Sequence to fold (682 residues):
Amino acid sequence: MPIDPSMVPMLETFIYESTTLLEQLDEILLESEKSKSFSEDYINEVFRIMHTIKGSSAMMEFTNISALAHSVEDVFFILRENPGRLASVNEALFDVVFRASDFLKMGIESVQNTGEANEDPQEMIQELERLASIMRGEAAPAAAAAPAPAAASSSAPVADPAFAGLQQIKIYFEDGCQMENIRAFMLLTQLKDICDELESIPAHPENDASLCSEIIQNGFTVCVKPATTLEDVIQVIESAVSIKTYEVLKAEEAPAEPAPQPAQDAPAASAPAPQPAKPAASAPAAGAGAKAKQSLVSVNQAKVDQLMDLMGELVTTESMVVSSPDLKGLQLDNFSKSARELRKLTDELQDVVMSIRMVPLSGLFQRMNRIVRDMSKSLKKEVDLVTEGGDTEVDKTINEAIGDPFMHMVRNAMDHAIESPEERLAAGKPARGKITLSAQNIGGEIVMKIADDGRGLDIDTIMRKARNNGMLTKPESEYTNKEIFNFIMLPGFSTNKEVTEYSGRGVGMDVVRQNIEKVGGTLSIDSKPGQGTVFTIKIPLTLAIADGMEIAVGDSIYTLPITSIRQSLKIYDDQQIIYDTDGTEMVMLYGECFPLIRLHELFHIDTPITDLHDGIVVQIESADKVACLFADELLGEQQVVVKPFPSFLNKYEIKRLGLSGCTILGDGSISLILDANSLLNM
Fold:
């Protein structure tokens, strides 16, 4: 059934919150499965997660999602009452809750794509009910256990004795704000992270839209035991949207409070001050950790993208103003001083805008945990996943782009690389294999590694496959190990003899490489027989704005990313120029030979500078490859906004020509951006 139009404004919040909660659920399940038990805190956390998803999905009328979440909640209610009952259903419970988590994720994804969630969870619900029955010892009534005691609604403006010991605060929402029950539920969601105990009157407002009239008439009472101080709770209430007034009904456990806020019949002038964007800076240090969560604001991705686009336009416009041809030859000290200050502010603004788009890799690493867990059980292998540098941040676009490549390489490691426990023991290895994911920020780019301690790549098998497929372009003896490893990244190359659930279809590493290269990254492989394999990915921090070196070739100006440049130099000695056996021009530098790429020949540009002594040589690198570019001159470093090529150029495969995009220069002209990786692989 399509979503109720009145609920559409809440859809994004529902999707975001549910997705976040399910990620937390997977972390708890993976951690708990290792110890084969749930801690008291984890039981309460799973119960809270399921209770929240149950309520919010019921509010949004996604009944299948709500029903399954309710069944999981019932099981964990039993565990809350008696954690020892887990032993009777241990492994079965973990399996069904993992399956329930997958079902809920697919349901949320379906809601995001179609606005509906129609898959039937009845089989899982029946399994959960069976486990609940076992945990109750068949003695408890079949009805689902109530998750928490609910207090009767109170219409009197006094503390309810049912919640003695909890601080009670009565809240009134602004007149005509509508959906008061949903607003009450959202307030509870904001408060849950800073309260050890949290109840409300009426209870579970999200479950019944008819409660709106009661909340309008009698107010909404929250009953809390703050994790830190009552002041933290008050700050969250004051910053919440559409709250008109609130009144502290009882404060036995709280420090001295400011004078209570007026009740419902108070004049509008005495309502709380306009809601602050974040908690006050003068708040006590004791609550700093909790209040930090409240300072976060969820922003639509489209707005962040638009902000980044505007930042790019600002950088371009600033460059056009400062580099205007009308200013050439003029001595403008005040203008130059102002221009420097503008550049400083623009750089700071750019750093802030880019930081908004940055997300940690921990979420990506965490998803790999689930893959390793599921495949370990399916393949009957024992594998530990070790992660390092999960707090390293990358642009959100890049984080999304590398998700599939990471998943494929981890699955490859599980399927191909890690041996069975018997094989590992026979080879003198520990029975448990290990896959390591690591990330670190090095010189303006992110370096990520996927390493395993498995059997390693078989060079003879790869060469035989390459020979049979006609992929060899030179004598076999001339291939280095790295060149041999690179064969596995060619289309259709697979050494797996059997098609399995995970591999053997000839589609894989070539797609991984292409996806990584789409975001300006590179992939290299190193492997040792019997010891394991390491995949190294290097990717820029962001795709939007980059530091580049402007290079002149004839009347054209090209931009080369600074991260691709190793050095630039002039050639004075003719003996530095040599040719290999197939006639390729090479440059001798420090005893090593590097191919020379003449840009004017590559792009068919007329220029008077064709003698190497007259121009400039720029040494570039990407992954493990190095070459030299010959150009007329270097014009200087410039911060540029990277623009993709228009889609109508895609049919010409222009990126294969050594170009990755374009940018607008200060004088309004267009500069093509050189792609070191493409140039080195032509």
Remarks:
- The domain at 360-540 is CATH 3.30.565.10 (Heat Shock Protein 90).
- The mean pLDDT is 80.
